[in-house]
């Protein structure tokens, strides 16, 4: 039977960049001692207090259809958090609860693009962006950056990339680069989007993981709230990846449109999950700090290991649960390095090329194993890189 063009286009075909990850998983399942530094998931599980709230809600009967747009208390609490963090007064009607940040992105793209319209995003990028754009029948367009500029987009590249585009996806703190966009970059993004009359889809799922500088939402910049759809999630901030709870925040009429779409897709998020999310958010910034603390600590472990050599380099590691390592001095591509490292050292990292052409010659390390294992993995990784470089020089 025929498959729709849309569904066939979600994946572009060819290698999807997850080959090293899958091979490492198979090796680990076969009992090999692999150190997996691949996916962005906490080594700690969801806090038991959040699970207790979930359990109490379910036992209390919140297991039927829940409000499709989110319970009033949860929408209000998310709006209060956004108000506190951005300084922009935000009401519950400007917030829709979604099945994680991913569903928020999907819904937001459907709400603002027509088939065939262009959506720009910045390379290196989070792996689902192009497929999500194509899933909305829109056309992806990358805006290139350079490692030498800390993977920040230039004003020229933004303006060129946004010409004729309907929307731009922005992700700060950034996966995979760990970059946190300063105000100046966000102002350039705002200027380019305004002049193209494009929407800004601001993916802020790592907003609690900022180690240098400060997280600024485009929603907080003058004149941008009306063209910004902000995407949030409890996956990273509260170690709730499996609960699938996030939100999209923007102008009330667009949120109403997206609520209408939700009626035809998810029909809402389970009530007991929403109650657990409410409990988690009410626990406040203290819990968020506790959950993000290991990543801040571990980036120092990486920095210390890298300081002992000069071959493998990195960016400032300003935010998120990843570091991007520049391994170009070994003469290998990111993919070749990742494959060889897995074979020789049983250490799995993501090839930079999985995140776009601009991350070629890099690998992404997720800081998601214990401090000791990360320390050991980084020592072995840098030794391995040195061995490759000296073999190449002979
Ligand atoms: N955006 C980015 C940049 C991510 O890294 C992720 C998850 N890895 C998501 C969105 C989706 O997160 P979730 O759907 O779990 O909220």
Automatic annotation (TrEMBL):
Gene3D superfamilies: Type I PLP-dependent aspartate aminotransferase-like (Major domain) (3.40.640.10). Keywords: Aminotransferase, Pyridoxal phosphate, Transferase. Its EC number is 2.6.1.-. It comes from the Bacteria. InterPro entries: Aminotransferase_I/II_large (IPR004839), AspAT/PAT-like (IPR050596), NHTrfase_class1_PyrdxlP-BS (IPR004838), PyrdxlP-dep_Trfase (IPR015424), PyrdxlP-dep_Trfase_major (IPR015421). It is an enzyme of class 2 (transferase). One of its GO terms (biological process) is amino acid metabolic process. Its cofactor is pyridoxal 5'-phosphate. SUPFAM superfamilies: PLP-dependent transferases. Residues 33-381 form the Aminotransferase class I/classII large domain. It catalyses: L-aspartate + 2-oxoglutarate = oxaloacetate + L-glutamate. One of its GO terms (molecular function) is L-aspartate:2-oxoglutarate aminotransferase activity. Belongs to the class-I pyridoxal-phosphate-dependent aminotransferase family. This is Aminotransferase. It comes from Pelagovum pacificum. The lineage of its organism: Bacteria, Pseudomonadati, Pseudomonadota, Alphaproteobacteria, Rhodobacterales.
């Amino acid at each position: 039977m025929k498959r729709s063009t849309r569904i066939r286009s979600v994946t572009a075909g060819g290698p999807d960049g997850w080959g090293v990850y899958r091979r490492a998983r198979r090796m680990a399942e076969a009992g090999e001692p692999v150190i997996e530094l691949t996916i962005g998931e906490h080594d700690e599980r969801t806090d038991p207090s959040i699970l207790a709230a979930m359990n109490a809600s379910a036992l209390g009967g919140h297991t039927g259809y829940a409000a499709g747009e989110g319970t009033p208390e949860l929408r209000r609490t998310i709006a209060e958090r956004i108000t506190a963090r951005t300084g922009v007064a935000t009401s519950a009607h400007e917030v829709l609860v979604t099945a994680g940040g991913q569903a928020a992105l999907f819904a937001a793209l459907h709400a603002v693009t027509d088939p065939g319209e262009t959506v720009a995003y910045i390379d290196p990028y989070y792996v689902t962006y192009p497929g999500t754009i194509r899933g909305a029948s829109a056309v992806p367009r990358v805006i290139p950056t350079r490692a030498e500029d800390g993977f920040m987009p230039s004003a020229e590249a933004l303006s060129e990339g946004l010409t004729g585009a309907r929307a731009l996806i922005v992700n700060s703190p950034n996966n995979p680069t760990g970059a946190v966009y300063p105000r100046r970059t966000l102002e350039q993004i705002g200027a380019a989007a305004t002049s193209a009359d494009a929407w800004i889809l601001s993916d802020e799922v790592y907003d609690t993981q900022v180690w240098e500088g400060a997280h600024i939402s485009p929603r907080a910049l003058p004149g941008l709230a009306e063209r910004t759809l902000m995407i949030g999630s409890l996956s990273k901030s509260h170690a709730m990846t499996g609960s699938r709870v996030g939100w999209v925040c923007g102008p009330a009429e667009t949120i109403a449109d997206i609520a209408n779409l939700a009626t035809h897709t998810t029909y809402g998020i389970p009530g007991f999950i929403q109650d657990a999310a409410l409990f988690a958010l009410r626990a406040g910034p203290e819990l968020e700090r506790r959950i993000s603390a290991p990543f801040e600590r571990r980036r120092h472990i990486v920095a210390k290991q890298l300081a002992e050599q000069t071959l493998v380099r990195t960016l400032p590691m300003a935010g998120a649960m990843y570091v991007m390592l520049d391994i170009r001095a070994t003469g290998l591509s990111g993919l070749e390095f990742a494959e060889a490292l897995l074979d020789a050292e049983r250490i799995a990292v993501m090839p930079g090329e999985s995140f776009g052409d601009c991350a070629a010659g890099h690998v992404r390390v997720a800081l998601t194993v214990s401090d000791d294992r990360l320390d050991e993995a980084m020592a072995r990784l840098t030794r391995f890189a040195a061995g490759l470089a000296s073999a190449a020089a002979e």
